[in-house]
DNA sequence: AATGAATGAGCGTTCATTCAT
DNA sequence: GATGAATGAACGCTCATTCAT
């Protein structure tokens, strides 16, 4: 038997690709990725059918990582607000710790080659988050709003928060807390 | 000078570029743009030094258009909330009417070649919006949040709203109103 | 107006391609052709959509040239045998004078990328030759054989003759005459 | 030595290579051959030093097979014409039964990488055919023609015949007989 | 100013071959 | 011997840009 495909090599490629794409855009050459990964140009094509597949795989991988991270250490007890804040906190912290992955994600999101199937498949990973949001709605949030919308606003607000934390890291806690407050008030206050 | 450069041609190029970039990404060829514009390949370079300059110019043009549109018909009287809603409404309507320009904008925003100067220059066009936000803060919004943050959330929330209107156009009014409510509650409610 | 496409450049490319393909096979790189033609790599793609189209065009061009050459100076009067010998002679002479084109032709004939349409289109150029053959048949040749078959044998025999002339140029006339005699006897003698 | 090289594997490779080359040309990848043969990519290089050697070996193998087939069941008695017809018949039948090998052969014949030694070595296998032809000459064929030329015409005509049989299989006998008649008349008739 | 042929650097991908397993 | 991951040179082709017309 020959050498088996190395899961590690695949991960290295994905990880390096995120960095390179973050810095130079998705138009960065595949050669620049393999070179940064210390591999031969052809090796990338052993693990991914082509550049498109690499990018789609990278999207899936980042999204999965993010989903897992957001729900990590999720408290069984506590109010809905506390639970949501926990997710929010994980999300924002992940963004601060993984600026390259975040940047790569943003570029892939507006990329024409992202396959609908991949986009949708990753959405499934966020289902627990959906039930959380539904709970929030049932427990007094602005009930007219569909939970998908609330989820999208949650995400948008979190991303905005990350931006500002990146710009002013010393105010990290301030933005994290107040950003969430703004979101929570937005969906609960009766106006 | 023989023939003067035609302002119309320049505008056509920008407008067609927005459509092409929206559909095919910024990696669309300059030839595909001139061809769609009914011009010769070389003509693009008469009006723009290169592709980078075209994209930067397009960003500036769209942002200016957006700024102008958002403040159009701005009421002199009325509450801060009413004024902000007016802006919000213009914003969201613009997005619905200009999906290509909006999509192009999103791609340029995450593009590596966007010049800092251009990014900043366009921010100036939004100064009136800044004073509006400052007024809102002075009039009771969560005072701890810097107005740039509030502005960013305003924008993020508006964009999220546009997404859902695009997906469900028949609920256009619903999303526009409730999206704004969420934003307004977020910055005013005391949590 | 810009520079018009140069018919001469196109011809140069075809001509050089024949030489290069003859020597190095159809797998010769497009760069080796443009370089031998003294042009930039990209120029080939101005005149031909791709390598496949170049090869198909080369096939058509050689076949047309050959058809024209074979029928050149065709005698209005004379016996069928004399007329056919005239064609035979032109054919064999062409092969001797154009070894590269002949070699290229042979390679393209067994190439998978040759389009059926091109293969058939060039057949039309040989229609006058077909009527000649039909005359020969009507005038006493082995009548059972379809003229396409006779034509094919004519060609095969001529090509065999060319091979031997190439190998032994000093016996050029000998092969040309006896090769034809063999063909003519083959189709006329009653066995 | 641990395991001996398997003669069967070598034959499988040659046989599959003929099919693949016939269909996709000599530019078909070695991987496509091993894959079609149900072997690993590297195995091909255990049996052949490289792709070139494989193709040269395939040429030799097909030529040997062909030579053997042509002379199979060769009648000891009978006229020269009958003997030659026997060979002709075997040749044409082989072509009809082995279209892939025939097609592969044609491609290799015009290939630049075919080694002169291999080309010549296989010629030796046809020596009995040569004496046959010499007999024919001695017995009344057009004596001026060298037997190599007659042999070449024999082959060319047989191949032309195969083409037409492939196109019109129901006229198989017709072409086989009349094709030979044409050849025989060609070399015997006094014109 | 407008045109589009010409350019050549650069890219994604293929593939014969090697070699660790 | 058999395997297939790893390699990196080579290729066809694209495309922003130039410039002769």
Describe the structure.
The structure is a homotetramer of 191-residue chains. By secondary structure, chain A is mainly α. The first copy, chain A, has one domain: Tetracycline Repressor, domain 2 (Orthogonal Bundle). Chain A is built from ten helices and no strands. In chain A, α1 crosses α6 and α8 (127-138) packs across α9. Chain A is elongated and about 60 Å long. Chain A starts with 6 loop residues before the first helix and ends with a helix. Chain B binds a DNA duplex (21 and 21 nucleotides) through α3.
Topology of helices and strands:
Four copies of one chain form a homotetramer.
Chain A: H1 7-24, H2 30-36, H3 44-47, H4 51-71, H5 80-97, H6 99-109, H7 116-124, H8 127-138, H9 147-167, H10 172-188
Helix pairs in contact in A: 1-2, 1-4, 1-6, 4-5, 4-6, 4-7, 5-8, 5-9, 8-9, 9-10
The structure holds a DNA duplex (21 and 21 nucleotides).
Summed up, what is this model?
With 191 residues, the first copy, chain A, is mainly α. Chain A has helices spanning 7-24, 30-36, 44-47, 51-71, 80-97, 99-109, 116-124, 127-138, 147-167, 172-188.
* End-to-end C-alpha gap of chain A: 69 Å
- Anisotropy-based shape of chain A: elongated
Q: Count of DSSP E strands of chain A?
A: 0
CATH superfamily of chain A, please?
Tetracycline Repressor, domain 2
The CATH class assignment of chain A is: Mainly Alpha
Assembly annotation: homotetramer
Question: Which properties best describe this structure?
Answer:
homotetramer; 191 residues; mainly alpha; Tetracycline Repressor, domain 2; DNA-binding
